[in-house]
Design a protein that fits this description.
Order of helices and strands: EHEHEHEHHEHEEHEHEHHHHH
CATH superfamily of the largest domain: NAD(P)-binding Rossmann-like Domain
Strand content: 5-15%
CATH architecture of the largest domain: 3-Layer(aba) Sandwich
Shape: globular
Strand order of the largest sheet: 3-2-1-4-5-6
Number of domains: 2
Bound molecules: NADP nicotinamide-adenine-dinucleotide phosphate
CATH class of the largest domain: Alpha Beta
Radius of gyration: 22 Å
Oligomer: single chain
Number of strands: 9
Protein backbone atom coordinates (compact mmCIF):
# COMPACT_ATOMS: atom_id res chain seq x y z
CA UNK A 1 0.00 0.00 0.00
CA UNK A 2 1.24 3.47 -0.82
CA UNK A 3 1.02 6.04 2.00
CA UNK A 4 -2.51 7.44 2.03
CA UNK A 5 -2.85 11.18 2.28
CA UNK A 6 -5.16 13.34 0.22
CA UNK A 7 -2.23 14.92 -1.56
CA UNK A 8 0.57 12.40 -2.19
CA UNK A 9 3.97 13.84 -1.39
CA UNK A 10 6.61 14.32 -4.03
CA UNK A 11 9.56 11.94 -3.99
CA UNK A 12 12.94 12.67 -5.58
CA UNK A 13 14.92 10.51 -7.99
CA UNK A 14 18.48 11.15 -9.20
CA UNK A 15 20.20 8.96 -11.82
CA UNK A 16 17.98 7.85 -14.67
CA UNK A 17 20.16 5.38 -16.51
CA UNK A 18 19.06 1.91 -17.56
CA UNK A 19 17.87 0.95 -14.08
CA UNK A 20 16.93 4.32 -12.64
CA UNK A 21 14.51 5.36 -15.33
CA UNK A 22 12.64 2.05 -15.22
CA UNK A 23 12.31 2.16 -11.44
CA UNK A 24 11.23 5.80 -11.56
CA UNK A 25 8.65 4.92 -14.23
CA UNK A 26 7.11 2.33 -11.96
CA UNK A 27 6.86 4.79 -9.08
CA UNK A 28 5.26 7.31 -11.37
CA UNK A 29 2.82 4.73 -12.72
CA UNK A 30 1.90 3.87 -9.12
CA UNK A 31 0.81 7.47 -8.58
CA UNK A 32 3.91 8.75 -6.77
CA UNK A 33 4.62 12.35 -7.82
CA UNK A 34 8.27 12.52 -8.83
CA UNK A 35 10.89 15.21 -9.16
CA UNK A 36 13.86 13.88 -11.12
CA UNK A 37 17.33 14.81 -12.28
CA UNK A 38 19.85 13.16 -14.56
CA UNK A 39 23.30 14.45 -15.50
CA UNK A 40 22.48 13.91 -19.18
CA UNK A 41 19.18 15.75 -19.56
CA UNK A 42 17.98 13.87 -22.67
CA UNK A 43 17.38 10.77 -20.59
CA UNK A 44 14.62 12.41 -18.55
CA UNK A 45 12.37 13.31 -21.48
CA UNK A 46 10.30 10.13 -21.38
CA UNK A 47 9.65 10.52 -17.65
CA UNK A 48 8.87 14.17 -18.10
CA UNK A 49 6.28 13.27 -20.73
CA UNK A 50 4.82 10.76 -18.27
CA UNK A 51 4.37 13.49 -15.65
CA UNK A 52 7.63 13.75 -13.68
CA UNK A 53 8.86 17.20 -12.81
CA UNK A 54 12.46 17.78 -13.95
CA UNK A 55 14.83 19.63 -11.62
CA UNK A 56 18.05 21.24 -12.76
CA UNK A 57 20.28 19.71 -10.09
CA UNK A 58 20.31 17.04 -7.37
CA UNK A 59 20.06 19.91 -4.85
CA UNK A 60 16.81 21.07 -6.46
CA UNK A 61 15.51 17.52 -6.29
CA UNK A 62 16.19 17.53 -2.53
CA UNK A 63 14.46 20.89 -2.19
CA UNK A 64 11.38 19.97 -4.17
CA UNK A 65 10.89 16.50 -2.68
CA UNK A 66 8.33 17.51 -0.08
CA UNK A 67 7.94 13.88 0.96
CA UNK A 68 11.51 14.19 2.28
CA UNK A 69 12.70 11.08 0.41
CA UNK A 70 15.20 10.98 -2.47
CA UNK A 71 16.25 7.83 -4.35
CA UNK A 72 19.63 7.76 -6.09
CA UNK A 73 20.65 5.27 -8.78
CA UNK A 74 23.96 6.30 -10.32
CA UNK A 75 26.77 3.99 -11.47
CA UNK A 76 29.14 3.84 -8.55
CA UNK A 77 30.30 5.26 -5.22
CA UNK A 78 32.05 8.25 -6.77
CA UNK A 79 28.94 9.38 -8.59
CA UNK A 80 26.79 8.67 -5.51
CA UNK A 81 29.07 10.87 -3.44
CA UNK A 82 28.93 13.59 -6.05
CA UNK A 83 25.12 13.66 -6.41
CA UNK A 84 24.58 13.40 -2.66
CA UNK A 85 27.33 15.44 -1.07
CA UNK A 86 28.64 17.59 -3.91
CA UNK A 87 28.17 21.35 -4.12
CA UNK A 88 24.80 20.93 -5.85
CA UNK A 89 24.10 17.67 -4.11
CA UNK A 90 20.87 16.32 -2.67
CA UNK A 91 22.10 16.98 0.89
CA UNK A 92 22.17 20.72 0.12
CA UNK A 93 18.47 20.67 -0.67
CA UNK A 94 16.85 18.21 1.75
CA UNK A 95 15.46 19.48 5.03
CA UNK A 96 16.73 17.90 8.28
CA UNK A 97 15.19 14.45 8.74
CA UNK A 98 15.15 13.96 4.97
CA UNK A 99 15.96 10.44 3.83
CA UNK A 100 18.28 9.27 1.06
CA UNK A 101 17.78 5.81 -0.45
CA UNK A 102 20.85 4.64 -2.37
CA UNK A 103 19.95 1.94 -4.88
CA UNK A 104 23.41 1.68 -6.48
CA UNK A 105 25.81 -1.20 -6.01
CA UNK A 106 28.72 0.22 -4.03
CA UNK A 107 31.26 -1.05 -1.48
CA UNK A 108 29.95 -1.65 2.06
CA UNK A 109 32.56 0.77 3.44
CA UNK A 110 31.51 3.49 0.99
CA UNK A 111 27.89 2.99 1.96
CA UNK A 112 28.80 3.24 5.66
CA UNK A 113 30.73 6.44 4.96
CA UNK A 114 27.85 8.00 3.05
CA UNK A 115 25.50 7.05 5.87
CA UNK A 116 27.78 8.66 8.47
CA UNK A 117 28.25 11.86 6.49
CA UNK A 118 24.55 12.24 5.79
CA UNK A 119 23.70 11.63 9.45
CA UNK A 120 26.22 14.33 10.42
CA UNK A 121 24.13 16.70 8.30
CA UNK A 122 20.91 15.72 10.05
CA UNK A 123 19.78 13.41 7.24
CA UNK A 124 18.84 9.72 7.20
CA UNK A 125 20.14 6.96 4.94
CA UNK A 126 18.96 3.59 3.70
CA UNK A 127 21.12 1.46 1.39
CA UNK A 128 19.00 -0.60 -0.97
CA UNK A 129 21.05 -2.09 -3.81
CA UNK A 130 18.98 -4.18 -6.16
CA UNK A 131 19.29 -7.58 -7.80
CA UNK A 132 17.85 -8.23 -11.24
CA UNK A 133 18.01 -6.91 -14.75
CA UNK A 134 16.54 -3.86 -16.46
CA UNK A 135 13.71 -6.16 -17.55
CA UNK A 136 13.09 -7.09 -13.91
CA UNK A 137 13.13 -3.40 -12.98
CA UNK A 138 10.53 -2.71 -15.62
CA UNK A 139 8.34 -5.59 -14.47
CA UNK A 140 8.67 -4.79 -10.75
CA UNK A 141 10.61 -8.01 -10.20
CA UNK A 142 13.79 -6.82 -8.48
CA UNK A 143 15.22 -8.20 -5.25
CA UNK A 144 16.23 -5.47 -2.82
CA UNK A 145 18.91 -5.75 -0.14
CA UNK A 146 17.90 -2.98 2.26
CA UNK A 147 19.67 -1.88 5.42
CA UNK A 148 19.34 1.08 7.74
CA UNK A 149 17.44 2.14 10.84
CA UNK A 150 14.28 -0.01 11.00
CA UNK A 151 11.98 3.03 11.01
CA UNK A 152 13.72 4.41 7.93
CA UNK A 153 13.44 1.12 6.07
CA UNK A 154 9.74 0.95 6.98
CA UNK A 155 9.27 4.51 5.77
CA UNK A 156 10.52 3.63 2.30
CA UNK A 157 9.21 0.07 2.09
CA UNK A 158 5.92 1.05 0.36
CA UNK A 159 7.97 2.59 -2.44
CA UNK A 160 10.46 -0.30 -2.62
CA UNK A 161 7.57 -2.72 -3.00
CA UNK A 162 6.47 -0.93 -6.14
CA UNK A 163 9.50 -2.17 -8.06
CA UNK A 164 10.50 -5.38 -6.30
CA UNK A 165 9.36 -8.94 -5.82
CA UNK A 166 11.18 -9.25 -2.50
CA UNK A 167 12.76 -6.91 0.03
CA UNK A 168 15.50 -8.45 2.18
CA UNK A 169 16.06 -6.31 5.27
CA UNK A 170 19.30 -6.19 7.25
CA UNK A 171 19.95 -4.27 10.42
CA UNK A 172 23.24 -2.53 9.63
CA UNK A 173 24.22 -0.31 6.74
CA UNK A 174 26.91 -2.20 4.80
CA UNK A 175 25.13 -5.54 5.11
CA UNK A 176 22.83 -4.78 2.19
CA UNK A 177 25.84 -3.92 0.03
CA UNK A 178 27.59 -7.09 1.19
CA UNK A 179 24.53 -9.18 0.32
CA UNK A 180 24.39 -7.68 -3.17
CA UNK A 181 28.10 -8.22 -3.83
CA UNK A 182 27.96 -11.85 -2.64
CA UNK A 183 25.16 -12.55 -5.08
CA UNK A 184 27.01 -10.92 -7.98
CA UNK A 185 30.31 -12.61 -7.15
CA UNK A 186 28.61 -15.98 -7.59
CA UNK A 187 26.59 -14.97 -10.64
CA UNK A 188 29.51 -13.45 -12.56
CA UNK A 189 31.88 -16.29 -11.65
CA UNK A 190 29.23 -18.74 -12.81
CA UNK A 191 29.17 -17.20 -16.28
CA UNK A 192 32.95 -17.65 -16.48
CA UNK A 193 32.63 -21.37 -15.77
CA UNK A 194 29.60 -21.65 -18.09
CA UNK A 195 31.87 -20.33 -20.85
CA UNK A 196 34.26 -23.23 -20.27
CA UNK A 197 31.42 -25.76 -20.29
CA UNK A 198 30.04 -24.29 -23.53
CA UNK A 199 33.51 -24.26 -25.07
CA UNK A 200 34.06 -27.90 -24.24
CA UNK A 201 30.76 -29.01 -25.76
CA UNK A 202 31.09 -26.84 -28.84
CA UNK A 203 34.67 -27.92 -29.46
CA UNK A 204 33.40 -31.51 -29.60
CA UNK A 205 30.68 -30.63 -32.09
CA UNK A 206 27.65 -30.04 -29.87
CA UNK A 207 25.64 -27.04 -30.97
CA UNK A 208 25.05 -23.95 -28.85
CA UNK A 209 21.39 -24.92 -28.69
CA UNK A 210 22.16 -28.44 -27.51
CA UNK A 211 24.60 -27.14 -24.90
CA UNK A 212 22.15 -24.58 -23.52
CA UNK A 213 19.41 -27.15 -23.35
CA UNK A 214 21.50 -29.59 -21.38
CA UNK A 215 23.11 -27.02 -19.06
CA UNK A 216 19.67 -25.69 -18.22
CA UNK A 217 18.36 -29.16 -17.43
CA UNK A 218 18.79 -30.67 -13.97
CA UNK A 219 21.37 -29.69 -11.41
CA UNK A 220 23.51 -27.51 -13.66
CA UNK A 221 20.58 -25.16 -14.16
CA UNK A 222 21.10 -21.59 -13.07
CA UNK A 223 18.78 -18.63 -13.23
CA UNK A 224 21.38 -16.33 -14.76
CA UNK A 225 22.09 -18.76 -17.60
CA UNK A 226 18.36 -19.21 -18.14
CA UNK A 227 17.89 -15.45 -18.37
CA UNK A 228 20.85 -15.00 -20.68
CA UNK A 229 20.21 -18.04 -22.91
CA UNK A 230 18.42 -15.89 -25.49
CA UNK A 231 21.45 -13.62 -25.92
CA UNK A 232 23.80 -16.60 -26.08
CA UNK A 233 21.61 -18.12 -28.79
CA UNK A 234 21.50 -14.95 -30.85
CA UNK A 235 25.17 -14.13 -30.07
CA UNK A 236 24.11 -10.53 -29.85
CA UNK A 237 25.01 -8.62 -26.70
CA UNK A 238 23.95 -5.07 -27.35
CA UNK A 239 22.27 -3.06 -26.00
CA UNK A 240 23.46 -4.27 -22.61
CA UNK A 241 20.99 -4.83 -19.83
CA UNK A 242 23.87 -5.21 -17.36
CA UNK A 243 27.21 -4.38 -18.95
CA UNK A 244 30.55 -6.17 -18.66
CA UNK A 245 31.91 -2.88 -17.24
CA UNK A 246 29.40 -2.93 -14.40
CA UNK A 247 30.17 -6.61 -13.80
CA UNK A 248 33.86 -5.70 -13.44
CA UNK A 249 32.99 -3.00 -10.91
CA UNK A 250 31.00 -5.52 -8.89
CA UNK A 251 33.51 -8.38 -8.84
CA UNK A 252 36.23 -5.92 -7.89
CA UNK A 253 34.08 -4.59 -5.04
CA UNK A 254 33.32 -8.14 -3.91
CA UNK A 255 37.01 -9.03 -3.88
CA UNK A 256 37.86 -5.88 -1.99
CA UNK A 257 35.13 -6.60 0.57
CA UNK A 258 36.44 -10.14 1.03
CA UNK A 259 40.00 -8.85 1.41
CA UNK A 260 38.88 -6.38 4.06
CA UNK A 261 37.19 -9.28 5.85
CA UNK A 262 40.45 -11.31 5.62
CA UNK A 263 38.94 -13.92 3.33
CA UNK A 264 40.61 -15.64 0.35
CA UNK A 265 38.88 -15.40 -3.06
CA UNK A 266 40.46 -17.94 -5.40
CA UNK A 267 37.58 -18.32 -7.87
CA UNK A 268 36.59 -14.70 -7.56
CA UNK A 269 40.10 -13.66 -8.64
CA UNK A 270 39.88 -15.85 -11.73
CA UNK A 271 36.49 -14.37 -12.58
CA UNK A 272 37.75 -10.83 -12.09
CA UNK A 273 40.71 -11.40 -14.41
CA UNK A 274 38.43 -12.76 -17.14
CA UNK A 275 36.07 -9.81 -16.82
CA UNK A 276 38.93 -7.31 -16.75
CA UNK A 277 40.36 -8.84 -19.92
CA UNK A 278 36.97 -8.58 -21.62
CA UNK A 279 36.87 -4.86 -20.79
CA UNK A 280 40.47 -4.29 -21.93
CA UNK A 281 39.65 -5.96 -25.23
CA UNK A 282 36.73 -3.69 -25.94
CA UNK A 283 33.79 -5.76 -24.73
CA UNK A 284 32.96 -3.50 -21.76
CA UNK A 285 29.74 -2.16 -23.26
CA UNK A 286 28.35 -5.59 -24.13
CA UNK A 287 25.82 -7.33 -21.94
CA UNK A 288 27.64 -9.44 -19.35
CA UNK A 289 26.13 -12.55 -20.94
CA UNK A 290 29.05 -12.18 -23.38
CA UNK A 291 31.29 -13.47 -20.56
CA UNK A 292 29.83 -16.93 -21.16
CA UNK A 293 30.36 -16.94 -24.93
CA UNK A 294 33.48 -18.94 -25.86
CA UNK A 295 33.54 -17.56 -29.39
CA UNK A 296 34.28 -14.12 -27.96
CA UNK A 297 37.29 -15.38 -26.03
CA UNK A 298 40.57 -13.81 -27.14
CA UNK A 299 43.47 -15.92 -28.47
CA UNK A 300 45.52 -17.64 -25.81
CA UNK A 301 48.36 -15.43 -24.67
CA UNK A 302 51.57 -16.01 -26.60
CA UNK A 303 55.04 -14.60 -26.02
CA UNK A 304 55.55 -11.23 -27.72
CA UNK A 305 56.74 -11.82 -31.32
CA UNK A 306 60.18 -10.43 -32.11
CA UNK A 307 60.18 -7.01 -33.73
CA UNK A 308 60.24 -7.15 -37.50
CA UNK A 309 57.79 -8.28 -40.16
CA UNK A 310 54.21 -8.94 -39.10
CA UNK A 311 53.67 -12.42 -37.60
CA UNK A 312 51.54 -14.86 -39.61
CA UNK A 313 47.79 -14.86 -38.91
CA UNK A 314 46.76 -17.04 -35.96
CA UNK A 315 45.16 -20.37 -36.83
CA UNK A 316 41.40 -20.43 -37.32
CA UNK A 317 39.23 -21.27 -34.37
CA UNK A 318 37.50 -24.65 -34.60
CA UNK A 319 34.40 -22.75 -33.54
CA UNK A 320 34.46 -20.44 -36.52
CA UNK A 321 31.24 -20.82 -38.37
CA UNK A 322 29.45 -21.83 -35.17
CA UNK A 323 28.16 -18.29 -35.11
CA UNK A 324 28.91 -14.73 -35.74
CA UNK A 325 31.41 -13.20 -33.33
CA UNK A 326 30.13 -9.94 -31.92
CA UNK A 327 31.85 -6.73 -30.96
CA UNK A 328 35.38 -5.55 -31.34
CA UNK A 329 36.87 -8.76 -29.95
CA UNK A 330 36.10 -10.74 -33.06
CA UNK A 331 38.62 -13.36 -33.95
CA UNK A 332 39.75 -16.82 -33.10
CA UNK A 333 38.64 -18.23 -29.79
CA UNK A 334 40.85 -19.48 -26.99
CA UNK A 335 38.95 -22.72 -27.04
CA UNK A 336 40.95 -24.13 -29.87
N1 LIG B 1 21.82 -2.80 -15.19
C1 LIG B 1 21.51 -3.79 -14.35
O1 LIG B 1 20.98 -4.83 -14.76
C2 LIG B 1 21.78 -3.63 -12.88
C3 LIG B 1 21.29 -4.62 -12.01
C4 LIG B 1 21.49 -4.47 -10.65
C5 LIG B 1 22.20 -3.39 -10.16
N2 LIG B 1 22.71 -2.45 -11.03
C6 LIG B 1 23.43 -1.31 -10.46
O2 LIG B 1 22.63 -0.15 -10.64
C7 LIG B 1 23.48 1.00 -10.81
C8 LIG B 1 23.09 1.74 -12.09
O3 LIG B 1 23.21 0.83 -13.15
P1 LIG B 1 22.60 1.17 -14.61
O4 LIG B 1 22.58 -0.12 -15.34
O5 LIG B 1 21.39 1.98 -14.49
O6 LIG B 1 23.78 2.06 -15.20
P2 LIG B 1 23.73 3.11 -16.41
O7 LIG B 1 22.63 2.77 -17.34
O8 LIG B 1 25.11 3.20 -16.89
O9 LIG B 1 23.31 4.50 -15.69
C9 LIG B 1 24.20 5.12 -14.81
C10 LIG B 1 23.56 6.35 -14.26
O10 LIG B 1 24.49 7.01 -13.38
C11 LIG B 1 24.65 8.37 -13.82
N3 LIG B 1 26.01 8.84 -13.50
C12 LIG B 1 27.16 8.19 -13.72
N4 LIG B 1 28.20 8.93 -13.29
C13 LIG B 1 27.67 10.08 -12.81
C14 LIG B 1 28.24 11.24 -12.23
N5 LIG B 1 29.55 11.37 -12.06
N6 LIG B 1 27.39 12.22 -11.84
C15 LIG B 1 26.06 12.09 -11.99
N7 LIG B 1 25.46 11.01 -12.54
C16 LIG B 1 26.27 10.01 -12.94
C17 LIG B 1 24.39 8.32 -15.30
O11 LIG B 1 24.15 9.62 -15.78
P3 LIG B 1 24.31 9.91 -17.36
O12 LIG B 1 23.01 9.46 -17.96
O13 LIG B 1 24.52 11.37 -17.43
O14 LIG B 1 25.48 9.12 -17.84
C18 LIG B 1 23.18 7.39 -15.32
O15 LIG B 1 22.03 8.07 -14.90
C19 LIG B 1 24.91 0.50 -10.81
O16 LIG B 1 25.47 0.65 -9.51
C20 LIG B 1 24.74 -0.98 -11.14
O17 LIG B 1 25.81 -1.76 -10.65
C21 LIG B 1 22.50 -2.54 -12.38
Amino acid sequence: MMPTTDQPKTVGFVGLGGMGRRIASRLLAAGVPLVVHNRTPEKVRELEAAGAHVAKSPREVGKQADGGIVFTMTSDAKSQRSVLLGRSGVAQGLLPGGLVVSLSTIAPEESERLSRELHERGLRYVEAPVGGSTEAAEAGGLAIYAAGEPEDVERVRPYLERFSRRVFVFSRVGQGATAKLSVNLLMISYLGVAREALALGEKRGLTREQMLELLLDGSSHSRVLELKAGLLRSRSYQPASFSVELALKDVRLALQAAKTAGLPTRWGKEATQAVRRAVEEGRGKLDFAALADPTLEPPRERPEPPAGPLPPSPPSSPLEGAGEAVGPAEGPGEVG
